[in-house]
Specification:
73% helix, 0% strand, mainly alpha
């Protein structure tokens, strides 16, 4: 599907049309009207220039396009930032869950140890009670 160039091609050099088309792509990107990264194909279609001409004669415009593409990769959009924030939050929650599980294990082990100790003390006390013969002392003389 051929698109008609939106940059006015009357009386402008191919370099000027490419720069204006690049500026238009950046504006579209900033306004959020497109979610795609600016590409050489989109740039050439918008300017009405062949890709061969872009690569052969307009390396300066091509370098600017590459800088914009790299900046887009370094500067994630709001959706990617939110996704990263959720991933970080998820990792933090996993860490907290692991810490809580370790704490539960610690308290369970302490409870078992205390229960075992209490049972042993009760057995020792019962043993002492069985072995002690009470000396009855008469109250009346």
């Amino acid at each position: 599907m051929a698109t008609t160039p939106t940059v006015d091609s009357c009386c402008k050099s191919p370099g000027q049309r490419l720069r204006e088309a690049l500026a238009e792509l950046v504006r579209q990107q900033a306004s959020g009207s497109t979610s795609q990264a600016p590409t050489a194909t989109a740039l050439c279609e918008l300017a009405g220039i062949s890709r061969n001409a872009l690569y052969r004669y307009h390396s300066d415009v091509l370098e600017e396009l590459h800088k914009i593409q790299q900046q887009r990769h370094r500067d994630p959009g709001p959706a990617k930032q939110k996704l990263q924030q959720l991933r970080d939050e998820n990792e933090n929650l996993r860490h907290q869950t692991a810490m809580l599980a370790a704490l539960v294990d610690h308290y369970f082990a302490a409870w078992k140890e205390t229960q075992t100790l209490l049972e042993r003390r009760e057995r020792e006390l019962a043993e002492l009670r069985r072995n002690i013969k009470p000396n009855l002392v008469p109250i009346r003389n």
